[in-house]
Amino acid sequence: MAIVQTGLGTTASMLNMFRHIGVEAEVTPDPSQLDRFTHVVLPGVGHYSEGSRLLSDGGWRGPIAAFAASGRPLLGVCLGMQLLGEGSDEGAGEGLGLLPFRMTLIPSAPGVPVPHMGWNTLTPVAHADQRPAGVIDAESDSRYYFVHSYAAPADSTVAVATTSYGSDFASAVGRDNIVGAQFHPEKSHRFGMALLRRFAEAT
Fold first, then answer.
1. How far apart are CA 151 and CA 99, in angstroms?
2. Of 167, 196, 154, which is closest to residue 179 (Cα–Cα)?
3. Residue 24: how many CB atoms within 10 A of its CB?
C-alpha cells in the first residue's frame, strides 16, 4: 500500500490508521516508485489550485494515471478525491481527469454554514459501479467525518454515494478500480477503519 506524499498533508494520520488495522503501508514521496505497489492512496487537504500545482511540479500526473490504467485499486481522499476529477470552481488548475466530474461550491443557507464540517451519513446510488461501491459502506448506520467547502454533483455519472447538507452532493465517486471519498476515513473511527480495510482487500 502506497500513500502518496505530494505535500498536501494527512499522510501521517492515514499511515497510522492503516498500521492500526494491520495493513502494511508506506508513505512515498517518489512517483517513480508507484508501480511497485498493489494499492495507492492519494490523500490531501487544502486549496484545489495548490493541489493541482503539486501534482504537476512533483511529477505525479503520469505515474498516477498509469497506475489507474493498470487496474490496481486507487483511492482519493478529500482533496485527493477532488483531484481525481476534471477541475474545480475553487481555483485554477486541472485535476487528473480520471473521473468525469467537476467540483462546485456548496450552497450556503440558514442553518447550512460552509464549510461542511462534522459527521454525516451516506446514501448509496442505485446502479453505481459495483467495484468501487464495494469499498464504500452506505447501507448501514455508518457515519463519516467531513471538512470541505466544494463538492461533486449528486447526479454525477460516477457518484457511488450521496450525502445531504442543505442539498445533496456526491460524497463518494468511483468507476472500475478508482474510488474517491470526500470525507476522511482516517478520522472516522470504526467506520473509517472498516472502509480502509475493504480498500486494502480490493483487487
1. 14
2. 196
3. 8
> 2-201 belongs to which homologous superfamily?
Class I glutamine amidotransferase (GATase) domain (3.40.50.880)
Sign for the CA dihedral angle at 73, 74, 76, 82 comes to negative
Q: What is the pLDDT of residues 38-54, one digit of tens each?
A: 999 999 999 999 999 99
Tens-digit pLDDT profile for residues 165-178? 999 999 999 999 99
| Strand residues in 31-105 grouped as ranges (E) | 40-42, 74-77, 87-88, 102-105
Contact 75, 181 (CB under 8 A): yes
DSSP string, 149-199: SEEEETT-TTEEEEEEESEEEEEEEEETTEEEESSBGGGSHHHHHHHHHHH
Read off the pLDDT of residues 121-175 as tens digits, 9 standing for 90 and up: 999 998 778 888 889 977 777 899 999 999 999 999 999 999 999 999 999 999 9
pTM: 0.96
What is the grid cell recorded at 86? Answer: 476534471
Q: Active-site residues: which are they?
A: 78, 184, 186
Nearest to 28 by CA among 62, 76, 53, 60: 60
Share of the chain above pLDDT 70, in %: 100
C-beta neighbour count of 186 within 10 angstroms: 27
